[in-house]
Amino acid sequence: MQQGGGILVVGADGMIGAALAERFVSTGVNVVRTTRYGGRGSLPLDLAIHPAGWQIPAGLSVAFLCAAITSTKECCDHPETTRVVNVDGTVALASHLAAAGVRVVFLSTNLVFDGSAPFSQTDAPTCPRTAYGQMKAEAEQGILEHGNLACVVRLTKVIGPPLPLLAHWRDSLNRGEPIHPFSDMVMAPVSLSFATMALASIAKTNVCGIFHGSASEDVTYAEAARHLADRIGADCDLVQSIRAVESGISLEHIPQHSTLDGTRLTSEFGLTAPSALLAIDELAQSWTNL
Ligand SMILES: NC(=O)c1ccc[n+]([C@@H]2O[C@H](COP(=O)([O-])OP(=O)(O)OC[C@H]3O[C@@H](n4cnc5c(N)ncnc54)[C@H](OP(=O)(O)O)[C@@H]3O)[C@@H](O)[C@H]2O)c1
Questions:
Q1: Can you tell me the distance from the alpha carbon of 141 to that of 152, in angstroms, rounded to the nearest whole number?
Q2: What is the pLDDT of residues 43-60, one digit of tens each?
Q3: What are 63's strand-pairing partners?
Q4: Which protein residues touch ligand 1 with a CB less than 6 Å away?
Q5: Which of 9, 102, 160, 259 would you label with 229, given CA atoms 20 to 30 Å apart?
Q6: What are the CA-CA distances from residue 172 to residues 55, 233, 251, 256, 289 (Å)?
Q7: Distance from residue 237's CA to the centre of ligand 1 (Å)
Q8: Burial bucket for residue 58 (CB in 10 Å: 0-12, 13-18, 19+)
Q9: CATH of the domain spanning 2-157+191-214+261-269
Q10: What does 97-135 look like in DSSP terms, one character per residue?
C-alpha cells in the first residue's frame, strides 16, 4: 500500500464501500471505516454535519469517498438537502483530508455526461442531465482542485450481490413471476469485484486525476434481464420488456449511451473490465456461491 499508510473508507456500509473495505482487510491493510451513525467497528461521520471538523485518525494515506445519496430520484426531488451531502459535505471533507496530506479518491459516475455519445473520454467536458449527475460533476470539480492529492473514479453501473434491482429480478423469476425491464435504457455494468480491484490498484500508487471503469459495451436492461434469466435457469418468457418512456415512471433523463472510455485503467494498471454480460455472469455465479 502507498507509503504503508492506512485506508479510510467513508460510507463503509454502502455496497461499494463495504466490499472495498473487505478487500483491503483481506490483504492485511489497516482500514478505518466510517458510516453515518458509527458503531459495529466504524466511526460516525455524517456528510451533512460539519465534516470539515471531523477528527481525522492518524496514519491514513488514502481516503475513499464512497458515501453519497445515490438515488437519482431523491436528488431530483430534494435537490437542496441532497446537495448538502453530495456536494458541500463531500467537498468539505475532501478538502479537510487533503489539508492533512491524505490522498482522496472520489467515486463518481457516467451520469456526469449526457450519454449522447459512447465511450466518453476522461477529459471530455461534463454535461449532466440529472440532478445527481450535476452534483457529482460539481463535487468532482471541487475535489480535483487538490491536484496530486485527488483522484476521481467514474464508474458505470456497478453490479454486485446486494444490488436490489437484479436481486428483485432473480427472486421474481425464481417464483415464476414476470419482470418488466426497460428495452430503451442501457447499462455498461462492471462487477463489484472489478470496481474494488480498480479502486485498490489506484490506492497503491500516487496517480491523480480522472479514471473510468466501464464495460466494453452497453446492453439494454431487457438484454441484461434475459441473460440473467438464462444464467439462473429461469423461463426467459417471464422477461417481458417495456419501454421506459411508456412505463409511467417519471425519469429525469434516459441516456442513449452509458459507456466510458477506460483506456487509462488499462494502460496504467493493466485492468480492462469484462464485457457487460460477463459481469452479469459473475453476479449469477456469486449468488450460487452464497
Ligand atoms: N453502485 C453504482 O452503480 C455506482 C456507479 C457509479 C458511481 N457510484 C458511486 O459510488 C459510491 C458508492 O456507491 P454505492 O452503490 O455503494 O452506494 P450506496 O450503496 O447507496 O451507499 C452509499 C452510502 O452513503 C451513505 N450516506 C448517505 N448519506 C450520507 C451522509 N449524509 N453521511 C454519510 N454517509 C451517507 C449511505 O449510508 P446510509 O446507509 O446510512 O444511508 C450509504 O451507506 C457513491 O458515491 C456512488 O455515487 C456508484
A1: 9
A2: 999 999 999 999 999 999
A3: 8, 104
A4: 11, 13-17, 36, 45-48, 66-70, 85, 107, 109, 155, 157-158
A5: 259
A6: 45, 13, 23, 27, 19
A7: 34
A8: exposed
A9: 3.40.50.720
A10: HHHTT-EEEEEEEGGGS--SSSSB-TTSPP---SHHHHH
Other CB atoms within a 10 A radius of the CB of residue 145 amount to 13
CA geometry: angle at 210 spanning 134 and 74, to 5°? 25
Question: Can you say how many angstroms the Cα of residue 224 is from the centroid of all Cα atoms in its chain?
Answer: 18
CA 4 to each of CA 27, 30, 100: distance values in angstroms, whole numbers, following the listed order: 13, 9, 16
What's at 183, amino acid-wise?
S
**CA–CA distance from 241 to each of 36, 179, 196, 258 (Å)?**
37, 8, 31, 19
Whole-angstrom Cα distance, residue 278 to residue 168? 19
Counting ligand 1 atoms within 8 A of each CB, the residue from 66, 108, 154 with the most, and so the one to mutate, is 66
Query: pTM above 0.85?
Result: yes
The residue type found at 35 is T
Q: With CA atoms as reference, report the closest residue to 107 among 173, 34, 10, 31.
A: 10
User: Nearest Cα to 93, choosing from 35, 129, 24, 142?
Assistant: 142
**Ligand 1 pocket mutation, candidates 16, 110, 185, criterion most atoms within 8 A of CB:** 16
Kindly report, residue by residue over 80-116, the tens digit of the pLDDT.
999 999 999 999 999 999 999 999 999 999 999 999 9
Q: Grid coordinates in use for 25?
A: 482487510
3-state secondary structure of 6: strand
